[in-house]
Design a protein that fits this description.
Chain B: Residues 71-264 form the OTU domain. The complex is a heterodimer. Chain A has helices at 12-23, 110-120, 136-145, 172-180, 204-221, 227-265; strands at residues 31-36, 39-48, 59-65, 76-79, 91-95, 150-151, 155-156, 182-185. By secondary structure, chain A is α+β, with helices and mostly antiparallel strands. Chain B is an alpha+beta fold. In chain B, strands 1-2-6-5-3-4 form a six-stranded mixed β-sheet.
Chain lengths: 266, 264
């Protein structure tokens, strides 16, 4: 990892991410995560399926997208390995849960986000956006299959986790957070995911290939030094996208209205 | 018949979309306005307040009353962090000219990290915020004209400025948690002090109330005078000192939902 000269080392976000990269550098048996070679604001992670759950024995890989405002704004997690709990290639974010409203806090970190993901996997999806409620058998099947899953960038993900390193104990503060946190799909359409909207119909295999291609494209795109600016545009455009989709929806309704009127009045 | 119900449904749908659309747009406009205002602005004559309210009798008379006591105002961005940002800017600005108090504050800031970690805040990230906080304090530590320029520059760099806000939020939260028995009385509803801290103090963009101000001014041992300007009766702009009876080092103007800096 050589980010020197590429990023403004005085920027608190850059300093913070370098520190987190240092802290998470060594893999544990529970998780590992590191930034991409050429982009400090995109990480790949691997987590172990929580023991005594449907995901036991599985190894799940994904991306972490960090907003330019990090750590003021939360990271987004995208799972790449089919798992039966979260849709793949869909942004999920740390969010407010119904009973105990919680919001992202700058003193949380990527480790917090990964712990939250692990803790949240066995909870019921309840049909929320981005959630899957696959049966126990299907999930166990996917957990077995996950051991052969490969990431185009990181290779065979099952080898990434450490088998000897003891996991870092969870602090009291982290436990409080884990008891109250919820993960939710980011429901605003995002530019880098939009072409996957119809992916429900494609087979798992195709999906996997398609999910990996964009990463390669993105890495090429982001080799220019203006990475941070790019991401800012991306974050800002997501609210714009929502605006446009609402506008399009109302226009379509208006057209249908006119057509219906025409059909029934004549 | 069918056509009508269809139509009704469609109009209803469009109405909902319209509402959402308007809300979306409103939020975007608010964000744009907020972002067009500097995090911390330049010093302006207090007369600019009178100009702002030339059409509004109640506020105009209060702006005039304020003009009797204060000479300048410095505006901050209304993003929910304004109390912490306004306070820290005004306080550091004051410390530039006061070596003794500066050293005292620096010492207190230096020690604050360990007590936060002892309270259970994650060491790794607290350290990160604390480092930047100390950096800012050190950079304005030289008693020269350039310190004022440096302070203004640092507070208008989003990253750095927000880090200072985060750290003050942590200090405030630490004070509330340490004296939880006392502060519990000030919290409405069923929430515990630590729930309140996690929901209303530690997250960014959450607005500050009396309880935040009391806790922070107590933790730092700094007096703050807040001038309240609202539609209430009278032409005076009520003053409130935090903690009670303290000599104010910083003066802030409160208008519903927002804090700016005042200079006598």
């Amino acid at each position: 990892m050589s980010f020197e000269g590429k990023y403004n080392a005085k920027s608190p976000a850059v300093k913070r991410l370098m520190r987190e990269a240092q802290e998470l550098h060594e893999a544990t048996e529970e998780y590992c995560a590191s930034p991409l070679e050429d982009n400090l604001f995109e990480w790949h992670f691997t987590v172990q399926g929580p023991p005594s759950t449907d995901f036991e024995g599985g190894v799940y890989h994904g991306r972490i997208l960090l907003p330019p405002e990090y750590p003021m704004k939360p990271p987004n997690i995208i799972l790449l390995t089919p798992n039966g709990r979260f849709e793949t290639n869909k942004k999920i974010c740390l969010s407010i849960s119904g009973h105990h409203p919680e919001t992202w806090q700058p003193s949380w970190s990527i480790r917090t986000a990964l712990l939250a993901l692990i803790a949240f996997m066995p909870t019921p999806g309840n049909g929320t956006i981005g959630s899957l409620d696959y049966s126990k058998e299907e999930r166990q099947k996917l957990a077995k299959k996950s051991l052969n899953w490969q990431c185009d960038i990181c290779g065979k993900v099952v080898d990434l986790l450490s088998k000897n390193t003891v996991k870092k104990p969870i602090t009291v503060e982290e436990q409080t957070m884990l008891n109250t946190i919820a993960l939710k799909a980011d429901d605003s359409p995002t530019s880098d995911m939009s072409y996957l909207v119809n992916s429900d119909t494609v087979s798992e295999n195709q999906l996997r290939q398609r999910g990996i291609e964009p990463i390669i494209n993105e890495t090429q795109d982001r080799q220019q030094p203006d990475v941070i600016v790019n991401q800012q545009v991306e974050t800002m455009s997501s609210s714009n996208d929502l605006f446009w989709s609402i506008l399009i929806a109302s226009l379509v309704s208006a057209i249908i209205l006119l057509v219906l009127r025409r059909l029934f009045l004549v | 018949m069918e056509e009508k119900s269809c139509k009704e449904q469609l109009t209803e749908n469009t109405d909902i979309n319209q509402d959402e659309l308007i809300l979306q747009q409103q939020r975007r406009i608010e964000m744009e306005i907020s972002e067009s205002i500097a995090l911390v602005g330049e010093k302006e004559s207090i007369k600019s307040l009178e100009r702002e309210y030339s059409e509004d009798e109640i506020y105009l008379s209060k702006a005039k009353a304020l003009g009797q006591k204060y000479s300048y105002i410095r505006r901050t961005r209304p993003d929910g962090n304004c109390f912490f940002r306004a306070f820290s800017y005004a306080y550091l600005e004051k410390l530039i000219g006061n070596k003794e108090e500066y050293e005292k504050f620096r010492e207190l800031a230096l020690k604050s990290k360990d007590s936060l970690v002892a309270l259970g805040f994650p060491q790794f990230t607290v350290e990160d915020f604390h480092d930047t906080f100390m950096d800012v304090i050190d950079k304005v530590g030289e008693d020269t004209e350039s310190s004022y320029i440096e302070l203004h520059k640092l507070f208008n760099e989003q990253g750095c400025s927000d880090y200072v806000v985060v750290y003050l939020r942590l200090i405030t939260s630490g004070q509330l948690r340490r004296e939880a028995d006392f502060y519990q009385h000030f919290i409405e509803g069923e929430r515990t002090v630590s729930e309140f801290c996690r929901q209303e103090v530690e997250p960014m963009y959450k607005e500050s109330d009396h309880i935040h101000i009391i806790a922070m001014s107590t933790a730092l041992g700094t007096g703050i005078r807040v001038r309240y300007m609202d539609r209430g009766a009278g032409t005076e702009v009520t003053a409130h000192d935090f903690p009670e009876g303290a000599t104010p080092a910083v003066h802030l103007l409160y208008r519903p939902g927002h804090y700016d800096i005042l200079y006598p």
